[in-house]
Amino acid sequence: MSLTFNAASHRYDLDGARLPSVTSILRPLQDFGSVPADVLSAAAEFGSAVHLACELHDQGDLDTDTLDPALMPYLTAWQAFCREHDARWEMIEQPLYHTVLRYAGTLDRFGLVDGIPAVVDLKTTARLYPVVGPQLAAYQHALQSHNVQALRRLAVQLREDGTYHAQEYMDTTDWPLFCSLLTVRGWCQRHRLNTPNLTHADD
Question: Is the pTM of this model over 0.85?
Answer without folding.
Answer: yes
